[in-house]
Amino acid sequence: MGSRSRRVWAGFWQLADPKIWVASTVPMLVGAALAFAEERRIHGGWFALALVGIYLIEIGKNAVNEFVDYVSGVDRYVTADQRNPFSGGKKTIIDGRLLLGETFLIAVLTLVAAFFIGLSIAILREPAVFGIGMAGGVLAVFYSLPPFKLNYNGLGEAAVGITFGPLLVSGMYVMLTGELSWTIAAIGLPISFIIVNILWINQYPDFEADIRGGKRNWLVRIGRRTGIKVYAVLFACAYLSLLLLFGLTMNPYWLLGMLTIPLAVRAVRTAAANLDDLPAFLKANAATVLILQLVGAAMIAASLLGG
């Protein structure tokens, strides 16, 4: 393998960043657990193929974001002292791992491959998957891409919430069972609010760069201090959603996720107390990811135990 191939391969995996696939894996596992509780079996091949398709969309979305944020200047405006694991996208172009053209090519190839996987599932397994998959794919692509640039126009948070909550849970469930309901979509709500909160708190390290690059997300619009209140409210909405699920299904195991409330309170306090101390502030970013993992595990258990 030549030096260029090694560079591109390393850049591809830096761009793919599998450790953040937890955001899509959690709702898909919840959907699969719900399907297993319903039918007492899982079609492993279809489940694995759906995972591959979603991960390809993740990579394509990352590539589109990387391309657009570099061109707009957002990633280039992140100064060396502000760089951290939660800032400046995947940094593949900034680090010289990928060129703009290579990033664009990765975006096209992965998104086209994801489309054909979704089409195959819709034709051979469950037609309803196509509409759900297309909705999620469009939101993922136009999260950064013109003409919509949702995350530049204050709609990125809503797009993330819809995609990583109700759409992914419902999509996995309907693929495995052939059934859809509003209750299944509602089960995605706690995940939705927490994933939006991950996006929200991760916008803090890039706050100044986003302003310079014209990214008008809601944190830029309302400011960092008011943003902490939104951070707290999003956590509250996640836990209220768990109460809602208990009320809808009378399954008490949905309340297991509420055991993470002390972690959420601590994360909010950490963020509020360290607005001007980025290294200390980043503990809130890490805590929010941990809360998603713990609530996700609790929801998988609730899906299985509640039948």
Automatic annotation (TrEMBL):
<protein>
    <submittedName>
        <fullName>Prenyltransferase</fullName>
    </submittedName>
</protein>
<keyword id="KW-0808">Transferase</keyword>
<dbReference type="InterPro" id="IPR000537">
    <property type="entry name" value="UbiA_prenyltransferase"/>
</dbReference>
<feature type="transmembrane region" description="Helical">
    <location>
        <begin position="128"/>
        <end position="146"/>
    </location>
</feature>
<keyword id="KW-0812">Transmembrane</keyword>
<keyword id="KW-0474">Menaquinone biosynthesis</keyword>
<feature type="transmembrane region" description="Helical">
    <location>
        <begin position="20"/>
        <end position="37"/>
    </location>
</feature>
<comment type="pathway">
    <text>Quinol/quinone metabolism; menaquinone biosynthesis.</text>
</comment>
<keyword id="KW-0472">Membrane</keyword>
<dbReference type="GO" id="GO:0009234">
    <property type="term" value="P:menaquinone biosynthetic process"/>
</dbReference>
<dbReference type="GO" id="GO:0004659">
    <property type="term" value="F:prenyltransferase activity"/>
</dbReference>
<dbReference type="InterPro" id="IPR044878">
    <property type="entry name" value="UbiA_sf"/>
</dbReference>
<dbReference type="InterPro" id="IPR026046">
    <property type="entry name" value="UBIAD1"/>
</dbReference>
<dbReference type="Pfam" id="PF01040">
    <property type="entry name" value="UbiA"/>
</dbReference>
<feature type="transmembrane region" description="Helical">
    <location>
        <begin position="226"/>
        <end position="247"/>
    </location>
</feature>
<dbReference type="GO" id="GO:0016020">
    <property type="term" value="C:membrane"/>
</dbReference>
<feature type="transmembrane region" description="Helical">
    <location>
        <begin position="98"/>
        <end position="122"/>
    </location>
</feature>
<feature type="transmembrane region" description="Helical">
    <location>
        <begin position="284"/>
        <end position="305"/>
    </location>
</feature>
<keyword id="KW-1133">Transmembrane helix</keyword>
<dbReference type="GO" id="GO:0042371">
    <property type="term" value="P:vitamin K biosynthetic process"/>
</dbReference>
<feature type="transmembrane region" description="Helical">
    <location>
        <begin position="158"/>
        <end position="176"/>
    </location>
</feature>
<feature type="transmembrane region" description="Helical">
    <location>
        <begin position="182"/>
        <end position="205"/>
    </location>
</feature>
